[in-house]
Every structure is written in C-alpha cells, then in structure tokens.
Amino acid sequence: MSLHESLRRIDEYRELNGFRTEPRQMRAAGPGKIGALRLGFSMRGGRSVLSDLYRVTPLLVQQALYWDEAMPELPICSIISIGGGILQGDRYTIDISVGEGACAQVTSQGANRIHQMDANYASQHQTVTLAKDAYLEFLPDFTIPYRDSRFINDTDLVVHEDATLLYGEMMMTGRKHHHASERFGFDLLSMTVNARRPDGRKLFTEKVLIEKGNETIDFAAVMGGYDAFANILCITPPAVAERIRERVNVNFGDERPRAISGVSTLPNGAGLMLRVVGVESYDVRAEVRNFWKVVREEARGKTLPEEFLWR
C-alpha cells in the first residue's frame, strides 16, 4: 500500500469525523510531518541480517545490533523518534518484512508520546509481513496520549502459516501522575489490526477505540480503575499456540491485584491474544514479559535474557 493510499484509508475512519480541521501552524501531512521507515530482514550467509533500511525523519533506525545473550543470532532494531513525540497533523508509516527463515526484534527507544492538539489528528500506518518460517518480535514501548490528543494507528499483518509473529500494543490512560484531567483526557485513541495470510485469506480484525466522554471504558469488565493496558497478539502455528496456552497462567485473584491478565484464542487458528490491565506500566510490562518468554521458548527453543536493571 502506497503512502497516499494508507493516508486516504485512515482518513475515512468514522471516528475521525470532526478532527479534520487544518492546524494554524503547518498543514497536516505537510513537509517535515511525514515520517517513514522500512525495515527488511533476510538470511545471508546463514545469518539473519537487516538487509533493507529506508528512513525519513523523524523516524530513525541506525543499525541492527546483536545483544540478546539468550538468542545471539537475533538482529535487534530500536525505532528512534527525533521529533520529541507525535504532533497534530503528523503522518507516520512503518513497513517491516522478515524473509524466509529469518528472525528479528523491533522495539522503540521509549514511550510514544502523543502531544496535546487543537486541530486535526495524528496517524500511523504499519505493515508487517512474515514469510515462511520467519520469526519477529515487534514490541514497541507504551503509547501515552496527552490531554486533548487524537491518535489513530492502523496495522496490517501478513503472516505465513508457518511463521510466528509476536506483536504488541501497550497503552496508558494518559499522564496519570501529571494531572487528574490527563486520565482519559484525550479526544481519541483508535488502534486497528487486520491480519491475513499471504494468499489474502483474512484471519481477524482487532480494534481498540476509546473516545472522550465514554464512561463505559472504566467499567469493571473493561479498565476497571486500572491505568495501563496491553494487547499482545501471537500469530503462530496451532501446535505452537497449544503449547503456549498450556504454559501461560491467568493472573486473576479474588483481591485486587496489581495486574490482571488472560489469554484467549484468535479466530481461524491464527494463534493467541494476551490482554493485560495494570496499575502502572511496569505491572503490565511484567505480565507481557512472562508471555513473551513462553512464546520464544515454544516457537524458537530459546529463552529471554535476564532483564536489565533499569527496566
């Protein structure tokens, strides 16, 4: 999908009605407001490498590093944003592909901050493509929407039936420690994932939509007073998914725990979905890491390294 096609598709989403006014400073999708990133991983000389890299600021990846002691063959790329956060009228596109038999991990340098807006919205379109026997961990850090911000993320996942993708979206209810009005103070947070096979067969669509003023978001069966949320998709062959499911424990006690998590089965034999709500980001991150560890062990026969002290 071309840049113009992805921008047009996102702009047609119903929830963006009322958020198409042009900013006074610089028009939406104007010069300097379109960030693009393309990462391609493939096997070369028996090694998985970053073989394709294209970047347009403010999105930046410098190079792939191999610092995972438990899986030293894994190239790791950290997406860096040099713009200090996402502003009104920004349009980002990210394209990640992993070739046959290759593996990779893509993460981010830190939280994705969506700044306050008085016009228009910000959007990001992502395409992730995995070939046969490919393996990808795409786990960006938390998205933090500031008060009065509007952000829409649209993601297409194209995964071969013999590949494994661990894809994560982690969100905060706002800058909860900044001011009480920041909690669910944003205008719009919309995150859609469409998954299919390379032959076009659709697997599922997953969508998180939070709009200002919707009190149901804080009901007991939704966020229930928690402030951090994670939606982690593991698209993997059914046999691998079954082994993962048998090992993952549900965290749901009688007393109010720091985090609540559960795993469910995705449609069409696509794999599993982990959902977590927690008090703080680190409570949710711990649940995600436990799931991530099991996925890697069952899909690749490798574990996670010891967690860094500063995490």
Describe the protein in words:
- A hairpin with a 5-residue loop joins strand 13 (188-196) and strand 14.
- Helices cover 13% and strands 40% of the residues.
- It starts with a helix and ends in an 11-residue tail after the last helix.
- The chain has 3 helices and 17 strands.
- With 311 residues, the chain is mostly beta strands.
- The strands form 3 sheets. An 8-stranded mixed sheet has the order 3-4-6-9-12-15-17-16. Strands 2-1-5-8-11-13-14 form a 7-stranded mixed sheet, covered by helices on one side.
- The mean pLDDT is 93.
- The radius of gyration is 19 Å and the shape is globular.
Which features characterize this protein?
single chain, mainly beta, eight-stranded mixed sheet, seven-stranded mixed sheet, 3 helices, 13% helix
Map the helices and strands.
Layout: H1 3-11, E1 34-44, E2 47-56, E3 59-60, E4 76-81, E5 91-98, E6 103-108, E7 112-114, E8 122-130, E9 135-138, E10 143-145, E11 150-159, E12 164-172, E13 188-196, E14 202-211, E15 228-235, H2 238-247, E16 259-265, E17 271-278, H3 281-300
Parallel strand pairs: 1-5, 4-6, 5-8, 6-9, 7-10, 8-11, 9-12, 11-13
Antiparallel strand pairs: 1-2, 3-4, 12-15, 13-14, 15-17, 16-17
Helix pairs in contact: 2-3
